[in-house]
């Protein structure tokens, strides 16, 4: 709809107010899918800041409250939004999922699915760097495994950080099968760069 061009003309605070007025954080999921398809067609593209605000307003509450796998509508909306605005999406959503205490198994599965199927290579690298910024836990090992499964060429400094983190964390994961699989995957995928 032509009215959506207002999204490109709002200040960040106006956009937050508009999202609140429209109750986007609680709108029905079928509408969320339609809204995200409208966002993809919007020209010019949203600014980084506007996309980050929309990622937070549209998805943050829904994703953090997941206690079972996301519905197909929510997954379609996430995939659609990620296809065009993966950088702000990762900055907002992945960062929030990493900060969440507790098990968060549905959030972890969702992150793995997004890494495996939706994100562009540069966004996969961003997820890896975000994961390596927080203390490594059993919950995050599958996310690292998903990143490695993409078989992307990692920048040397990011690969060095990954290897260093795995080495430093080895004593804490002495009995972890997931950790052993992860180390094996790193050695297999990057054997020429890991000494």
From TrEMBL:
GO terms for biological process: interstrand cross-link repair. This is FANCE protein. It comes from Mystacornis crossleyi. It holds the Pfam family FA_FANCE. It comes from the Eukaryota. The gene is Fance. One of its GO terms (cellular component) is Fanconi anaemia nuclear complex. Residues 1-194 form the Fanconi Anaemia group E protein C-terminal domain. InterPro entries: FANCE, Fanconi_anaemia_gr_E_prot_C.
């Amino acid at each position: 709809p032509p009215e959506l061009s207002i999204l490109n003309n709002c200040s960040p605070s106006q956009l937050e107010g508009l999202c609140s007025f429209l109750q986007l954080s609680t709108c029905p999921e079928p509408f969320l899918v339609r809204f995200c398809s409208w966002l993809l067609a919007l020209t010019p593209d949203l600014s980084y800041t506007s996309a980050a605000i929309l990622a937070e307003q549209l998805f943050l509450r829904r994703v953090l409250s997941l206690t079972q796998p996301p519905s197909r509508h929510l997954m379609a909306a996430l995939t659609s939004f990620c296809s065009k605005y993966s950088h702000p999406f990762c900055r907002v959503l992945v960062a929030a999922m990493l900060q969440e205490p507790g098990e968060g198994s549905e959030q972890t599965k969702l992150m793995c699915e997004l890494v495996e199927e939706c994100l562009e290579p540069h966004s996969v690298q961003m997820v890896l760097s975000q994961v390596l910024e927080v203390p490594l836990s059993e919950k995050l090992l599958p996310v690292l495994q998903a990143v490695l499964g993409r078989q992307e060429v990692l920048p040397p400094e990011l690969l060095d950080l990954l290897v260093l983190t795995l080495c430093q964390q080895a004593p804490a994961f002495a009995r972890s099968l997931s950790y052993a699989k992860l180390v094996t995957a790193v050695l297999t995928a990057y054997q020429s760069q890991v000494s």
